[in-house]
Amino acid sequence: MFDLKGKTALITGASRGIGRAISEAYCEIGIHVAGIARDITPIKDMENSQSYSGNFKGYTCDISVGKNVKETISEVLKDFGQIDILINNAGITRDTLLVRMSEKQWDEVLAINLKGAFNCTRNIVRPMLKNKFGRIINIGSVVGIMGNTGQANYVASKAGLIGLTKSTAQELAKRNITVNCIAPGFINTDMTEKLSEDIKDQMKKSIPMNRFGSPQDVASLALFLASDEAGYITGQTITVDGGMIMN
Predict the structure, then answer these.
(1) What contacts 4, CB < 8 A, 6 or more positions away?
(2) Cα-Cα-Cα-Cα dihedral of 58, 124, 110, 31, to 10°?
(3) 59 is catalytic
(4) Measuring CA to CA, how many Å separate 16 from each of 24, 71, 166, 213?
(5) pLDDT of 238 over the 90 cut
(6) Where are the alpha helices (DSSP H) in 17-82?
(7) What letter would DSSP give residue 111?
(8) 34, 41, 154, 191: least CB-packed within 10 angstroms?
(9) Contact yes or no for 103/114 (Cβ under 8 A)
């Protein structure tokens, strides 16, 4: 197991799906987790759950607003003293065909999925530079690589995360800070649960492993990328998709 005990991670979108799975995996091995979510109730429930081994503390923040992010990160630093790992996971969807997509639907998705990651990364880099260590992991999507009908806003945000990953990795590589992107395929989350069985069966046919992944599959990679063992990996986008888009 990777030796990350005593490190501190900030995870956005920590209360559901992939963010929750990463939070649990990190807490289990002794990483202190500052979890950000929009709703206070699930975050507080996580604080009180034995699954997080007393290593989890929740914060509410609208990450699309730079001022709010700056204040929240200052609060996290006061509580934990440092932030070693950043997981930019928070994301929303407002799916519809491009011709029907409103400016509001476009702006809302880009504001959370891409601008939110920018706000968090920009405000967390200085403390990482001071500590001469950092792991930044952006949670993208395979659709950011391949595109998807009815998701122009979501796809643009995830493709933007890949670009943000590469540029930030180049800027920080000499400072012992790595930046990578995980691009999940179809993962069993609240989003996929809403789909009909027919649509799920069609999706599985495009996956060589013939099944959806689990949030834990993504969390396992997030553990590795945060470790010293991944210290020579940066600027990469790694798919977790059961072979769906083999390059």
Answers:
(1) 26, 29, 30, 31, 223, 226, 227
(2) -40
(3) no
(4) 11, 23, 27, 15
(5) yes
(6) 17-28, 40-47, 66-80
(7) I
(8) 41
(9) no
Q: Which of the 8 DSSP states describes residue 187?
A: B
Which among 10, 231, 9, 235 is positioned nearest to 119, based on CA atoms? 10
* The amino acid at 112: I
**55 phi/psi in degrees, rounded to 5:** -100, 10
DSSP string, 193-240: HTS-HHHHHHHHHTSTT-S-B-HHHHHHHHHHHHSGGGTT--S-EEEE
Q: 26, 52, 154, 232: which one is catalytic?
A: 154
- Token representation of residue 71: 């204040």
Q: Nearest 5°: phi and psi at 141?
A: -170, 150
Higher-pLDDT residue of 89 and 39 is 89
Q: What is the pLDDT of residues 162-214, one digit of tens each?
A: 999 999 999 999 999 999 999 999 999 876 777 778 878 888 988 999 999 99
